[in-house]
Amino acid sequence: MQLSEQEIIRREKLDALRKLGINPYPANLYPVNHTSKQVKNDFTEGKKVIIAGRIMSFRIQGKASFAELQDSEGRIQVYINRDEICPDEDKTKYNEVFKKLLDLGDFIGVEGELFTTKVGEKSVRVNDFTVLSKALRPLPLPKKDVDGNVFDGFTDEELRYRMRYVDLVVNPQVKDVFVKRTKLFNAMRNFFNDKGYFEVETPILQPIAGGAAARPFETHHNSLDIPLYMRIANELYLKRLIVGGFDGVYEFSKNFRNEGMDRTHNPEFTAMEIYVAYKDYNWMMEFTENLLEHCATAVNGTTEATFGEHKVNFKAPYARVTMTDAIKQFTGFDITGKTEEELFEAAKGMGIDVNDTMGKGKLIDEIFGEKCEGNFIQPTFITDYPKEMSPLCKEHRDNPELTERFELMVCGKEIANAYSELNDPIDQRQRFEAQLKLSERGDDEAGQFIDNDFLRALEYGMPPTSGLGIGMDRLIMFLTNNPSIQEVLFFPQMRPEKKAPEMSADELNIYSIIDSASEKMLLSEVKEKTGYSGKKWDNTIKAMTAKSIVKVSKTDEGLFIEIN
Q1: Residue 141 needs a FRET pair 20 to 30 A away by CA distance; which of 385, 436, 441, 552 works?
Q2: Inter-residue contact 52 to 32 (CB < 8 Å)
Q3: pLDDT at site 442
Q4: What per-residue confidence (pLDDT) applies to 61?
Q5: Where are the transmembrane segments (predicted)?
Q6: 223-281 pLDDT per residue, tens
Q7: CB of 70 within 8 A of CB of 172?
Q8: Interatomic CA distance for residues 308 and 322, integer angstroms
């Protein structure tokens, strides 16, 4: 393993601690009784406290020093006096351990009493401290200039998502998004529970990938010697429970779709689906707008949210627009009664990319997605979808060409999908067969299987039911003003990390010099520090640039070198 100069020094300090008889990773419980937030909210001069956290700053001042500890709820200043923690003649704990062997990022526990500094800072006067964990890598801490402006922050998105553990430490505001995410789940769960609906769990590994139009991930069960599919939706299992006698069931499910990735799609995502017996999609619209009003208030304290340049209000009620009217409004084309050929030509004439694998439903979906979807900023229910787009949805009571379905649009994106659920087993079989034919034509998002067990369940009888699905990741994006789904997932899917190129001893030496600097260095300054001859220097730098380890840039001030 190639180590930077700072990493080597930290390992040397680790060894030094052990030689002093200090275990840098003690196993015993540390009796924390206050957090930084509790200290500040319930501050009493002289109160004794025990706190713990990560060292985020030092101010060494001879016999006395200040440090700042960061715990799960914020930061608190601690004051360490040499003679306080080392009352006897042996001053090693302060002079050696605290001043020389601790680094930014290390965890310590402190016992002490509260006091206020001369400048009014609520602090802890330390009576004793304990090393709890030695950090072997330096944190990429942002720096501030004399005016307080932050620079050199840990802002590279790929690094932040790949090393979320570092992101959360050095960018504590990121944590707020995930706190709000949990508030959203709790608010939604409480809303359902208060109405008597039952939270359940359904299989993630399924013999048939059903309940949605999507490409699944496939695996193999060795013992049963059968293929299995990662869940793309939990709809068909939740409906089985309605058949079994539950009047209302819901689940927060991890779903997996083997499809493209972008700023609004991750191959692993979280959905909520709820099914309520004896209801229809009209009831579900009112239920949904009341649910989201409740959730927005629980997360942000208001029904209003900012998303990019838009101000969105989740207060009920929401506008309702049929899909036919939406397409007619934004394209001038009426899809009513149109054949597949007419829809194909219309879409093609609108400049939409279409192909022969697309049936009526997919063509209508493409027209709506390309020409209409982005126009709906405030929460809007798009209702009454053509039958071909909704194989699990009940036929519209007033128009056999349509279904009783709605999608909720916010800022041009769908965040909820709901039906009056199809409970006619004969009609459902015919819909599945139609989807299978589309799959055979080459539509890889159409249903590729007929779930005969689900059809058997329907034949035992399912009461009238309405179901709702909400994309939880996308909803929290809107509630926290994050345009990228990666920002609301702790660990989004990433490409494999590039393997670090191997470096010679000379290359590693140059790398360490550059890495230890707070900003890019002059090429001449690095060369001077190495003491290499001209030929050795040239050959080493050429090799490092060829392997993209470093890059050299020219400015009016000279040639600079930095790590790539």
Answers
A1: 552
A2: yes
A3: 65
A4: 87
A5: none
A6: 999 999 999 999 999 999 999 999 999 999 999 999 989 988 999 999 999 999 999 99
A7: yes
A8: 27
Q: Which CATH architecture has domain 5-139?
A: Beta Barrel (2.40)
CA distance 173 to 472: 21
Two tokens at 547? 């392997």
End-to-end C-alpha distance for the chain, whole angstroms = 19
Q: Rounded to the nearest 5 degrees, what angle is found at the Cα of 191, between the Cα atoms of 187 and 197?
A: 130
Outline where 385-519 has alpha helix (H).
425-441, 452-459, 472-480, 505-515
How far is 358 from 444, CA to CA, in rounded Å? 10
Residues 128-169 have pLDDT tens digits of: 999 999 999 999 988 777 777 777 788 999 899 999 999 999
Longest dimension (CA), the chain: 95
Query: Was 89 annotated as part of a binding site?
Result: no
Question: Where in 39-134 does DSSP place strands (E)?
Answer: 48-61, 64-71, 74-81, 107-116, 122-133
List, for the chain, all residue ranges whose pLDDT scores fall below the cut of 70: 1, 442-448, 500, 518
pLDDT at res. 371 = 96
* Number of other residues whose CB lies within 10 A of the CB of residue 117: 12
For 382-414, the three-class secondary structure string (H helix, E strand, C coil) is EECCEHHHCCCECECCCCCCEECEEEEEECCEE
For 174-318+378-487, CATH gives 3.30.930.10
- Written out in words, the top-level CATH class of the domain with range 505-563 is mainly alpha
Q: Specify the DSSP element, H or E, that contains 310.
A: strand 310-313
Check residue 446 and give its pLDDT.
56
Which residues is 85 bridged to in the sheet?
none
User: Any binding-site annotation on 304?
Assistant: no
Bridge pairing between strands 143-144 and 226-230: unpaired
Q: Which two tokens stand for residue 165?
A: 């553990």
The 10 Å CB-count burial string (b at 16+, else e) for 236-251 is: bbbbbbbbeebbbbbb
- What is the reported pLDDT for 144? 74
Can you give the residue ranges of every domain in the chain?
5-139, 174-318+378-487, 505-563
Would you state the pLDDT for residue 219? 96
Task: Supply the DSSP string of 153-184, one letter for each residue.
Answer: -S--HHHHHHTHHHHHHH-TTHHHHHHHHHHH
Q: How far apart are CA 210 and CA 229, in angstroms?
A: 9
Q: Is 206 helix (H, G, I), strand (E, B) or coil?
A: strand
